[in-house]
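Why do we bother with holo predictions? Because pocket geometry can differ from the apo form. Keep that in mind while you read this record for adenosine-5'-triphosphate.
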Amino acid sequence: MVNWTKEQEAAIYTAGKDILVAAAAGSGKTAVLVERIIQKLTNQEQPVDIDELLVVTFSNAAAQEMSSRVGAALEKALSENPSSMHLKKQLSLLQKASISTLHSFCLDIVRQHAYMLDIDPGFRILDNIEADLLKQEVMDDLLEDWYGGEGVNQESFFAVVDRFSSDRNDMDVVELVDALYVFSIQNPWPDQWLDRLTDVYKVPQNWQETDLPWLDSVKDMIAEELDGLEQEINLAMETAKEPDGPYLYMDALEQDKQMVEQAKQLTAWDDLQTFFPLANLQGYPVKKCRNATKIKRKK
Ligand SMILES: Nc1ncnc2c1ncn2[C@@H]1O[C@H](COP(=O)(O)OP(=O)(O)OP(=O)(O)O)[C@@H](O)[C@H]1O
Ligand SMILES: [Mg+2]
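The structure, written out:
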């Protein structure tokens, strides 16, 4: 008899709502899930049959592990209660229970309902290489159409190519389109998700900072840059202070540091926008420090 922890018990017995269990590797997630299944099968008031449950995993190995652990738990329960017809039935149903990967479950559904989807019931899943080749082909055709086409959207297409490709080729655009595709199909409604992407770039008249959700990300990036700059200035100051250091740079470094500190105080977008075009890093004195020359020569 396992002594389940309080959290494990909650994960086993909580019913009537969705639950999400996240726990460290090897901490007993599968054990808890197996026990949750066993408890449902052996529930006195509402015993269920194993083929009424849907258990999906990500890998084949996990599905096999799940199935064999449920089998072992059923055997154990049966050895404690050898006359239970219900348990015997569960063991015999185990083979046709839906304990599989998410993919093979979906494949079964599609195959069973192929007639509704108007596809050949003898379809098969492309392997990764075939799928990549097909995707490549579609991408080539698509780009060829766009490069050769004419129309209102053509301008936009070339703007995208100009902005996102390198001088040499358009591989970056291909990768961008591919990344957008891959990301979009992780969403339940990929087309809507793609359509919505442009909404965030629509800047309303008399906009408020809160209207533009991406401003926060830009501000975070600026803050990160400023932190990095400050660290470098601090490092440079340490070096300048060393006995052999380029002490003449100290004034300029002090001023740069002040500038960075000032910038870090700013939070409103308007303030940031006014500040940066006017803010300059100091020029460092051309007149060589006596010691700096020495350092150079040492290298
Ligand atoms: N409360 C407990 N008391 C004693 N043993 C436990 C307890 N909870 C889990 N175990 C044991 O710990 C071991 C690891 O459990 P399990 O395989 O379920 O972990 P997991 O979280 O699924 O691991 P992984 O991250 O590798 O999938 C198993 O032998 C299981 O029986
Ligand atoms: Mg596990």
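DSSP finds 14 helices and two strands in the chain.
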